[in-house]
């Protein structure tokens, strides 16, 4: 009994439109809607042909009225299906339309069967044969047209073929009985083909669904990969790749519309000391917070501003919509004001600032890459001359770039041995006012450019990568000069970040010292805050190596950069140099006076010497002496001198000191 119920359920399933597979239902509808007009065309034309044959044989209501009614009914359905081709339907509407087709397939088929049987008695043998042919051929054509809707095809087959076979078998005419048997066999074969075709069609839809799912998954994966490839994983901002892609797009729009476009580059001032002092975890948190603040400012400007993280603590902006200089400076002020607000860390508050460089199209450059380079140079200028502010690339900066390029080109081809000269500035003991050493200053006399300032050629040497070769030549020259001085006179030599942050750079320095014959204890290397913060761990190791062979270490230009006191405490320093900017107005600016006082106190606490730079007046000297400064240097005592003038300077100093001592003894006597 259970098997019988299951078989009945399966049978019912064959005669209904499945609702549990929307993809299959939609595919059936799309295929079926294309073939229904052909189905009705076959039915109408064959019915008209039969009616025409029986026109002189049967009553008018069977040959005219009834066929007219049936063809009108099927014609209306044909027009309806033709209209559905241009209508987008949802799954529920498609299912409803297919079920309507399923319900009316049987009645329509029955009407045409009844009409055919009603005509049959009126015909002669030829006309009766046409009825049989009409019913057989038409049902085969209809089955073909309904193959995508299996349930409707089966309903029509049963409604037409079963009465057809029974009716013609009952006629006891051998020819008609043979036609009935033949039609039964053909219909059975057609139903078998129908099942196979429907199964293959369903499998094809399922495979297409699977393929679409795979394609969707592949597309989703591709979209995710694209997102990750264009997104900075730390800040969730667009990355460098996306920045230049957007720059290209913005640039194309600006060229097409004839409007202005700006590129901005933002660099966080003082981020590296935070990263080195508190660790990378805290540094990442500061970057995330800085990126959030930048994002808020840029979001307030709308879609005309595109923000990205270029790498490290550097961010980029593309500003569209025809910005003016005033717009860029206003945007720069908003950004710098937000960035410099305090950052709350776990144990302390810390602060940052940021410098910005802007370049405008078409004023600064007419291509995307040069425009970016102009913005980068504007940033470089801001960090040197307007730290914490925004600079727009100008004609003056363009001239500076040309000059810098000339210097860089000449520096690459320069003969350092012959073109580089040295000058020496004495370092004076404050108490005795006697020279304790000389600071080495480089001078470049270019055959084509003339005398080039160290402020121009030293940064150029760092940019072009020749600084270490230059350092070796200058150190060898300086040590050769120092070898002729009295043993108690020390030499102070400046090192760049490239010198102390590369292992081979330190090795070359040590080799030069050993070859010179000058005792390492007479040599003092000066390093800047920038050099220390460039790569603190490497700088710390290099300084320790130099200390190990007996060299002294001074921290130059202290107070002008962003290195933290923790760095000062961690480095094995011997001296700390107070920058000339604080000494220049020590007697007129209370802030400078307090800074120098704090620095001399720091040196006393750390038990290291303090050197004041840029002393030009006796009043400055007295202030530094009163605040506890140990050494000074500046024009008050002597300007930088060539190597051959050092011996005369020292001799004159000894004579002066000797005369002073003699006068003091005479006065005392």
In words, what does this structure look like?
The chain is of the alpha/beta class and 669 residues long. Strands 8-9-11-12-13-14-15-16 form an 8-stranded mixed beta barrel, surrounded by 4 helices. It has a 5-stranded mixed beta sheet with strand order 2-3-1-6-7, with helices on both faces. The chain has a two-stranded antiparallel sheet with strand order 4-5. β4 (343-344) and β5 (349-350) form a beta hairpin. The longest helix is centred in the N-terminal third of the chain and has 56 residues, at 174-229. It starts with a helix and ends with a helix.
Kindly report the average pLDDT value: 81
Can you list the strand order of the major beta sheet? 8-9-11-12-13-14-15-16
Poorly predicted regions: 1-5, 7-15
Distance between the termini: 144 Å
Tell me the total number of β-strands: 17
The major pleated sheet works out as: 8 strands, mixed, barrel
Oligomerization category of the chains in this entry: single chain
Measured by DSSP, the beta-strand proportion falls in 5-15%
> SS-based structural class?
alpha/beta
Helix amount, in percent? 55-70%
C-alpha geometry: rod-shaped
Helix count, DSSP H or I runs of 4 or more residues: 25
Radius of gyration using CA atoms only: 48 Å
